[in-house]
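W.,

You were right to be curious about this one. When I first looked at the sequence I had no strong expectations either way, so I just let the prediction run and decided to look at it fresh. Below is the sequence, 377 residues in total, followed by the output.
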Amino acid sequence: MTTVRRLSGWAVRAAVIAVGVMVQPPNRLTAQDSQFGIQGLGTPGKQESVRSRSAGGAFAAFDASSPLMDANLADIRRLSGSITGATSWRDVAADSGQVTLRGTRFPALVIAGPILRRLSIGGGFSTYLDRSYGITTRDTLIIRGDSVPVADQITNDGGVTDVRVAAGIRVGRALAIGAGIHMLTGSSRIVAKRVFPDSGDYRPTTSRDEVAYEGFGASVSALLDVGRDLRLAGWYRNDSKLRADLGGRTVAENDLPVSYGGALLWSPGNQVVFAGSTQWHTWSVAGAGVNAHDTFNWSLGAEIGSVGSPFRLGLRGGQMPFGAHGAPTETGASAGLGRQFAGGRGRIDIGIGRLVRKDDRLTEKVWTILLGVSVRP
């Protein structure tokens, strides 16, 4: 029996797959991450608290617990912290039929507080790109003059995290501005296993590597109150290149998008608030090799009831950045509840969301349960 001891070529290829230069679809998908992120750099995270996500993401620009904008930090009057948790059930199509996958994430943490009467600072982390999946590809190799079928089983666990430090300042009764710096960091643990399913002459071979990611970004934003009932928001962010290193050597480098958007919040009464937002991301700069496309996304949401116990609902739609046959579409609906306790020093938010993602060949359906906890000591 012959042992294949080192297959450095396909091990490096597995690492390159992890940073998004795979151009052929997998034969079998066993992923926790979205199938529409495997052939690109990953699945972009949603920089939203449970409150915002339960309302379709529409309140993210006005919610200091959502790491989307920096100017809303100016509204924080005391030290506070919030964390978001999400558990998803994902139905995806595989060659063996429909497969249901489950994944649990903690996609956002924000800690912020005032340091001067008009100035607040904050920091935390959020998911920038999710890169957790498992795939199997099949091929035929010529070994000693014979055609030998092989199967490469590649498992990737990890992603890219956005670590943010930001400040928001109120420069007048109606205007607040903010700015932040972002460090993109993270890693992916890759296990690549080659098996020979139809041959007893070769033993399976396994290679393990870890890819480290690095990048930087900066953001600016503003909030403008137009009268007592209407608030406007705008934001702009520019990220650098995402570099992927394997064993101290750069194996891939991709440009990251410029992102910008606007939002509107309307409060026609004491117990009802409506919001809407739009976002644009120039993901196409990442390069043709990762099947990248520019995206536009929108969201609408409402919050009904008292501040201490509101009900939320929302809609969202738009595009995902990576797809071999154009930008996949994403539509969704969500709802949730919130409850304050301890005299307003704590809050628990729960939500549920449904997403449908598709292109002309694939469809993915996702249920997500959300739980958020906020404290103000």
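Here's what jumped out at me. Residues 1-31 have pLDDT under 50 and may be disordered. And, maybe more interesting for your project: The helical segments are 8-18, 35-38, 50-54.

Coffee later to discuss?

I.
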